[in-house]
Protein 1
Amino acid sequence: MCIEKNGCASNLTKQQIQGGIVVKVLAINGSHRKGKNTANMLNIVLEEAKAEGADTELLEITDFNIKPCLSCNQCLRKTSCSIQDDVQVIANKMMEADAVILGSPVYFGNVTGLLKMFMDRTRWMHMCQNLLEGHIGAAVTVAGLRNGGQEVTLNILERFLQSHGLMVVDSRNVQGGIYNIGAVGSLYESLEGEQIRWNSSILDDPLVLHQCRQLGRNIVKAIGKWRG
Ligand SMILES: Cc1cc2nc3c(=O)[nH]c(=O)nc-3n(C[C@H](O)[C@H](O)[C@H](O)COP(=O)(O)O)c2cc1C
């Protein structure tokens, strides 16, 4: 549960969090492949959040039964959905989490089909009331190409989070330089003549690691400000 949101006089410190105040960070991997590049990025964000004292969990979208929205419009009148499947399970975890991170590979300049189905099915969480209002949100994305649609996909993910009332944090260290548009990855390594060399894993890219780690720290800091 998101408990004690207004319970402390000042921002939560790392010591307070590690001293027993529970903060929860949930990541949802929208990739159609478990444990690959998007999952790797999300895991780095979560590792860093954990090091800052957060409880963390990664959900793989492929583990859940998610039917497409029927556009029945029940959600215009009720904070519920007419379809019974696993969306409620994920939704409950989102509502219990202080922060939700969405990850998606770029598929044709957009999020994956499975993640989009899930996103549409969350409409009941914001039509009558914004049930996630004020929670912290963040997004990561990865594409094959160096400029393969990461920026658009990141915008789509962040806009979705904002429409649910989440406060989106980015991967910038405010006391440091600006290195990229966000926690975005590519498998491009270099071009030799006409031959592209690809990284076999997103973990080979130090910039991605840096941005994901910073995002993890920023998320816990934002939770501390929100709950403090
Ligand atoms: C259906 C499909 C569409 C894709 N579209 C793009 C694209 O528009 N731009 C791009 O750079 N890469 C594209 N890719 C490549 C993936 O973004 C890339 O392989 C990514 O690392 C996959 O993430 P994952 O390892 O978490 O599965 C596409 C891959 C698939 C399967």
Protein 2
Amino acid sequence: MKVVIIGGGAGGLSTASNIRKYDEDAEITVITRDEHIAYSPCAIPYVLSGDVGCFDDIIMHQPEDYLERDIMVITRAEVLEVSSENNKIRYQSLDSLENDGSEDAEKPVKELYYDYLVIATGGAPFIPPMEGADLEGVFKIRTIKDGAKIKEWAEKSHKAIVVGAGLIGLEIAYGLKNLGLEVTVTEMMPQIVPRSLDPSMATLVQKYMEKKGINFILGQAIDKISGKERVEGAVFGDEEREADMVILATGVRPETKLAKMAGAELGRWAIVVNEKMQTSVPNIYAVGDCVEVYDAITGHNTQSPLGSTAVRQAKIAAKNMVGIDAAFRPVLNSMVSKIGALEFGAVGLTKTAALQNGLKVISGQKRALTKARYYPGAKRIDVKMTTTLDGKIIGCQIIAEERVAERVDTMSLVIAQGITCNELVNMEFSYAPPVSMVIDPIILAAEDACEKLKRLNGD
Ligand SMILES: Cc1cc2nc3c(=O)[nH]c(=O)nc-3n(C[C@H](O)[C@H](O)[C@H](O)COP(=O)(O)OP(=O)(O)OC[C@H]3O[C@@H](n4cnc5c(N)ncnc54)[C@H](O)[C@@H]3O)c2cc1C
């Protein structure tokens, strides 16, 4: 079996490793435009913040490591064409293109045959069409190279503007603040992290970041980036803010060009795949940021641009390619992040998103502590839960200075199992004063939801 994988990110390389796990004989080739492979883009903000020593630390493997497992990784090569009629791709080395005129530049475009093709082309940063976006000192953030360029520029800068208050924007903002810059985050929505947090929870994260000295301009789109050759500032309506760097953390657009060329169906957001991760061309699979997924609560197709999703999809695609039946389930988009000491995470729908989707919901919310009140080091924790009017839990948001990820994962199980707030309050949680509360904050939020539902139903 000959498998060609386009993309050396989380989706592509995990697919390669998983195929090898199940099939010793498969001929596997991975092709990527990038120079570096097998690194964690998720860790870039933490290199900026100084929590991780340097960019080399976040590279987990080299092409030679894959070769040891008989997986050929071709770096700095661009796949130009997919021909699904004769199962071939055409690719060209980027180095030969850059050395135009040299002997290398004469090299013909190479061709590879595949039995199965995996499109794991990820996404490209979305750059809003605005004046000044091409000035020196304006950065996108996607690859380790982007991260290194940002760090180098930041080290000789004083003021940064981060456009976009999603997870990546906030993490980068904190990283830049730790590098000693004056940082302003701007967001066109009236709150930060609009995709994952309700306004009441987002405010808590914003306040924490403001205490750390980060400024916010919310509900205001940036009109233009000003400057002649280099960035000098950004304009918002009547206001202009000075800056010597601008980071555009304005989202990701799936890379679907090759899939389209192969004749694969594209949906509203990205490449359409079935639960086996097959595109509409049966021997072409697709995984990662370039595909669209189904939302487990709304049933609508959506995006899940998360490394965790890409890796899970890779496992499913690999299994199906080697003949093991496996299905990728609709997503709950569970996420977690850490800014300084503050962790925040969410799974399922916020109350706002549920209402926007036409669902009738209420929310239960509670502030509590992460361990017994008297125990040294107990931290404040905020939990907000979204439930339907029959009590089914469909979302949860958690903010605290410890143990957020575990609780988000617990709630991911709760939601996936269709558990109601009435059922949750009767569940058994462990307790010891140094590590937990005798009644877990999750239960307290569920109790609050139950009370609200009782009042609503006039019980
Ligand atoms: C700063 C940052 C922080 C993040 N934090 C988190 C986090 O905390 N948790 C989380 O779950 N996710 C996080 N993510 C998202 C996560 O990194 C992505 O979801 C994940 O990398 C997607 O993997 P992928 O394989 O689909 O795409 P990518 O990693 O983008 O890989 C795509 C690959 O395709 C290659 N490619 C594309 N077109 C071609 C072509 N024509 N020819 C050859 N090669 C091609 C590219 O070179 C690249 O190697 C973060 C992302 C960023 C940028």
